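Last lecture ended with a question: if I hand you only a sequence, what can you say about the shape of the protein? Today we answer it with a concrete record. The protein is tyrosinase. Below, first the input exactly as provided, then the predicted structure, then a couple of comments.
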Amino acid sequence: MASPPGYKLPEYLSKTPYEYYAITGIQAGVVSDQKKAPIRQEIDEWSANKANADQVDLFVMAWRNLMNTSPRERGSFFQVAGIHGQPYIPWDEPELKGEDAQGKGYCTHNNVLFPIWHRPYLVLLEQLLYESMINDIIPKFPKEKQATLKEAADSWRLPFWDWAVNHRVPTLAKYPTTTIPTPSGKRERVENPLYQFKMSTNEPFLSENVGQVFDPWAGEDGKGTYFNFGPCVATSRSPDIEDSKDPNSETWINGVVNNNQVGIALKSPQWMGGGKYGAASEMVYRLLTHPLDYMSFATTFRPEGTNDISKDVNLEYIHNNVHGWVGGDYTGHMSEIPVATFDPLFWLHHCNIDRMWAIWQTLNPDKWFESADKNTFFQEAIGLADTITPQTKLRPFHSDKKGTCWTPEGARDTLNFGYTYPELQTWDSKYNSSGTYNRELHLADIRKTINEKYGASRTELLGNPTLGEKTDDGVKSNDFAFSVRYKKYALDGNPFTIKIYLAPGDGKPRSPETDYVTEVYNFSSPSIIDGKEICSNCTTVAATASKATSYLSITYVLVQCVKRGILASLKEDVVTAFLQKNLYWRLYQRGRELDRFAMEKIELEVLGSFNSANHNKNPTFLTGFKGFRDIPALAGGSDGALDPKLKQKPTPPPTKPPAPPSAGLRLGTSVNLKQDFVFDSVIILDSTKVDLNPIITDTIDNTQVTFKNGNDILFLVSFRRAEGQIVFNTNLGGKWGAEQRVDLAGRLKKSTTSIMVHDQGEGFEVFLDFVHLAWFQKRDQRPIKTVSYGVNKNQKAVLSDVLKVSVYPSMKKMFGH
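The predicted structure:
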């Protein structure tokens, strides 16, 4: 994203001598020899308890302080939120140049670091809030009150929001104003900092380098749409479509907070019977009960060839869904990766994600990883190596003032950061009655909590044993789910939602509003923003067979169908026939239903599966799931249903566009373009041959295509076999510019190839066989008028002697849309 005119990096980065911010966690209240630490509590339970009134006041006042701190201060809420995505600048890394951070962020998704990296990130905010309580707030109160407030602060930790149980916006974040105490003993009404974030300067986000997100698939004119967060002074949460249409409207600038809509999204759909379980309850239950290794647990990413459906459930897809439910369909901040962290609910949500991981760690203490690939990101992660290990640096989080980075191994234990969760109090006297920690007794209580809070289908089956097979211990039942697999970055990295529906089956008209069952939100971001590459290798992985995955149990829904009388039983053949007839799904992007072309593009798979579930009536025993297998008759894809009557109508074939201007470009010749090559234009050069055999030459082994205006080469693509490189450059006024190179190894694997160049305004994006190869900053804004093809004297070309040249006025025209 281009910086606003005159933008400079925050001044704190240039201080000398520089002292790094040490993230140690709050150590007050920690008893190391007992492995005891203060507890992060559920926010509604904690804030409703009058005994915690001082803590609640301190929490709100400290958050308000951080929000009101200058956005250029290292410890401001703005700076901390900006670590995750935009404004794409260094944080606490003075050695990192601003230009090296442009278009890059720090956070990691879609790999094993997802839960790990966010742990010190949460601790950073927690620690800053605590320091504000101790250093800024408490000293202003009368001395006789300070000791009590200090005690409250020392035992306080960042609260979590358990959206799977409390499926509504937390009370503390629900209203635009709140009251806080004053040193005089009165209470003062102020703007609620948890309701929405507001710029302390009252200047738009763009003043601090936060701006546009481009979606090339949106917009009715076929040219894409910019979702512009730059004019905003405050955040939005689940806005209506009208609210987000005009980035210059007063409502968008000042933020739209629709907490009621968030509650509707988090609540159970009508199929769930309106009970205590929310939309995410069963997702969490499966996460904590399925037999998973750490890598499967942590992330949506599944490498090619991974087909074990029992491992399709993962922490990250549940996390993604909550982002979608809170941000809403129409670009609320939480649903857009570059700006999600500015919504205060991000932090309460991620605190619960950290809790889920901590519980899973306690149940599976020996499960970890040795090494993993970094896979693909929505944005390039600053300084992250291709291979991740337990010693990988979690930038930009430092454990001391000298700049030592936290690592996954160091961040593995919450006690290292001075906190724990309600379920994990190993020091409780109940588990130490004999002087020795009774781990099994503790685990039994954790399992009981999981059953009671999240076991939706377990509760139903034990309450209706005739739906299964009654056993001495409880009920054995059939269990059904759908794995949803898709290419995460196939829509140019933009987010999308896959919604699952169940037609009534009782003769009533079907309706997406009433038939809705569940969904999968692909929390992603464009790989190219403002012509700059944001994703480290999204476009490459988009072209591979690797997919993201999720696991949606539907047993609870099927039980409701049996109770309604529209499903006879949970027998496999009965359920299979019912789902074949009534299940359907659609793909949405920012509230708009996409056509089958888009479902084909993400290579959507919706795969039904069966397993056997043993529900034990003993509340300290988790349900045992085993015998996972596919149901071939319930395997669907990009047509949107299993029954022909429910399938999405095929998109009418687009009117075939006029044949693009094309010509044969012979080796040693040039071709003049009939129209100037300008913004959004596309050139494709097709070669019928690829020759990577080394040649003997006394000069540079060089096969080159040049894009020219007059005698000036505005862009050069040069294949250098001997050097194993592809070189990009310009020659303006007879002078060569600085070369830009990528490795040739691993490319040009087929006997034919296609080179595509897309003019993106500020630069050219180059694709090789329709896979992203490089992005090259323009050095001259004149249009390309001529394309030339040549080799050095007496050399054989890497490509065929004749290249087919095709020119399109836009990327969408190239796809025939």
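Comments.
1. DSSP finds 21 helices and 33 strands in the chain.
2. The two ends are 27 Å apart (CA to CA).
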